[in-house]
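Annual report, structural modelling task.

Input specification for the heme C complex:
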Amino acid sequence: MTYPVWYVPFGSAWIIAVIATVHVFISHFAIGGGLMLVLLEATASRHDDEALKGWLKRRSRFFLLLTLVLGALTGVGIWFTISLISPAATSTLIRLFVWVWAIEWVFFLAETMAILVYYYTWDRLDPFAHRIVGWIYFGSAYLSLVAINGILAFQLTPGRWLASGSLWDAFFNPTNLPSLVARTLVCFILAGLFTLFGLAFTKTGPRPDLVRRSLLWVGIPLASLPLVLFWYFKAIPPEQRLIAAAVPYFNHLALTALFAMAAIALLAAAVWFSRGKVALRQFAAIMLLLGLFGFGSAEWLREDLRLPYLIVGNTYANGVAVSALPELRSQGLLATSQWSSVKAVTRQNEAQAGKEIFVMACSQCHTVRSRLIPLGPRLASLDEGFASWLAYRTDLMRGGMPPFPGTAAEAEAVAHYLRVAALPEAISSDGASVFRRRCGVCHTMSGSFRPLARVFEGEKAEDAVSVLNDLQSFSSDMPKWTGSETEKSALAQWLVAQSNPAKKGAS
Ligand code: HEC
Ligand code: HEC
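The model returned the following structure:
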């Protein structure tokens, strides 16, 4: 480990998630909204529409505050937090993309200058020149998205870069284009949602022509988004998609995003066809909230798609470089880290050593007993042998975890630390919960992740018991049975019943 770890007991992932969600929401809105602003300004000056112009003028102040204050603060906030939480990957990204970052910075500078000039010159510049300034604002905001999008896409699909090391391959990677198109559509949708919201709260009442226009900004890109997202997913290597499919909460994120999209579409249709009879304020507010949740979930899911990596094929999610793994596994994490206070696990220092290993290798995604995937109670409910077995085989489990970056003795120390740091969960020994504890971490029954149902098809409970007695003959990656005999027979019956649904009633 080249860098020390900033340990946050309640889970550092929260901090990134909150700041990043706010930032992407604002930045995408600033782009789409910027375009909408100049286009509406053109409409206003074509029709000599002073009322519209006045409204746009007040709105441009909101843009100014949004980009200059919130956008810049959260943008810098992301840098600050990722460099504390993932210093190794951040440093790789900075070195590789140094010119892209520099270019992005210039665009951001242009964007902030343009919005300042735009806001302060409504009545000083002639309308055409003023709109040009607006176009510069939109153009530079969009180009900074183009730069960042390439880097985000790179982390998920580094593509040919892994072999060539070339910046060109890194930037123009397989998901760059589909992701840019999807983000562009999101920019339009958010612009439409925000404008609708703004219109609903104008003192003179919403103008029907502008309401319809905002609805089109929402509806048309929303209708094309599913196809673009399909294109995006197709460009992601199947093994990355499989990992995501095996974790229940990733599926929840995907469902939240899809639900939000469908609900926004329905509400937009309701506003459109009711011709202003629905309560626009409530509708617009709900649609905006749905946009925030849906987009937030989709971004979170995208971050998780690259697990177990931060940069696929290069850096694991706990900051361990892929190239450093063999040395860590043979020499030990404590011995090779310059930040550990103990250099090897002994009987006396086991809990301290375990804590330091937990902080370095697991705390990026887990907590000991807080809300974010707590490991303490879970491992405290297992017998010590099985808990250590699991800790050493993180890469075999569902969840897209990096391989354990240390020796088997170090995994034992982590399991020991976690087991003593928490109280066991209330456990029951019915078949389903035994399966969840003992098998479900690495298998599903019928899903796509090492499904077991076909193994027990047509078998009887006695056959299942003999399978459980002899797990290691199937794969040396499986633990010996260390549970009780009661648990074993409950599990055997459950496995057989699940795999032979027709006989469920009979048993
Ligand atoms: C990149 C993030 C990440 C890292 C790093 C990570 N894990 Fe996990 N871990 C997960 C996810 C995600 C799950 C699945 C949670 C779920 O299914 O809800 C998981 C599940 C587990 C489980 C199974 C819990 C259960 O449901 O029974 C164990 C045990 C575990 N991790 C141990 C570890 C240990 C030990 C380390 C450090 C050596 C570690 N993990 C590092 C993300 C991670
Ligand atoms: C630490 C992870 C892990 C745990 C826990 C685990 N397995 Fe496995 N299991 C594996 C791996 C790895 C394989 C090898 C096959 C593969 O890679 O698909 C395997 C293979 C199997 C096979 C052979 C599958 C086949 O298609 O031939 C059976 C049966 C099986 N496991 C049953 C179980 C049962 C029952 C439990 C719970 C008591 C269990 N396993 C717990 C990792 C695990």
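The radius of gyration is 27 Å.
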